[in-house]
Amino acid sequence: MNNLLLFGLDGGATKVLAQTCIIDNKSSLIKPIGNFIETLYNRSITFNPNFLPVSLIQQQIEASEKDYYITEQEVSQSESINNTIADTISSIKFNDQKYLMGFCFPGLKTRKLDGITIMSNGPRNIEMLSKINDKIKSSQKHKSLIKQIYDDSECCLIGEWKSSIGKLKNCKNAIYVGGGTGIADGVILNNKIINFMNSKILKQSWQLIMPSGQSVENYLSLGGMLNQWNKGKSIEALNSLFENAIKGDIYANQIIENASEAFIFLIKKRMAFFKSHNTSPEKIVIGQRLGKILSDENNPLSKSIFQNNFNATIELSNNRNTAALGAAYKAYDLYK
Asked: Considering the domain 170-318 in this protein, what is its CATH number?
């Protein structure tokens, strides 16, 4: 597998990020090559900026019965996502070099990890991989296909842990909190990544219900904050939230307070998990767009969160390509 080129893809609610990378033979860490590229789904003519997902309760019912009623809106929105991802792959020049692709995406996956059965902020995409791979096959230049859809939270954590630019290199015990449209949860215990699905104690942010009745994700994720602010889903809307909070807007400040309380609630739960294993985390890393926001000391959310003592070192990661790096590393680790 020496000199193998790796290609990581991180799909989200609004765009896909792609990063070319290699494994550094000396450190065994994954290393980005060149700049990452981002492609917005709204470039596709079938993309609907006002798309509303099917209610989570209905999605859960259909998933449990394995009987899906996929709406026309979901089909159209999925097509825009699938086409954008396939086109992004086709735009990369590999020059006939052997390469391997890793791909992560939010939502609950099918049993074969080839589709999305539950998606809180987007369409269900049951045949996602077959649709993307069919389009890749139609391009004579590309021979490698995507094997599985990886968990985006896990890939965020792997990217921070196993990449040359990661904030969790050499950590044996750590907490990761990534914030974007949703929350990427990660825990490393005794040098191993904890699988939330197999843990009886740990719950993910969307499963952690606060005394208010809302989940941590609903309050702490940028998507959750924007839902409360109700001014749209853009960066401009997010900036207006923080600007109004600084000006003393009561409603904006309540949203900031909710987010801060959600973060404290989450960290306390994670700390209790480590304590139950007679250890403590070496550090807490906050990443993705949430990490970038908190790096501004004047941001009201940063001021609210960091006035607390968490009994652990907190580091912020501004790297937006960690999930893509994690996906590429996982593909390498599984198929080496």
From this structure: 3.30.420.40
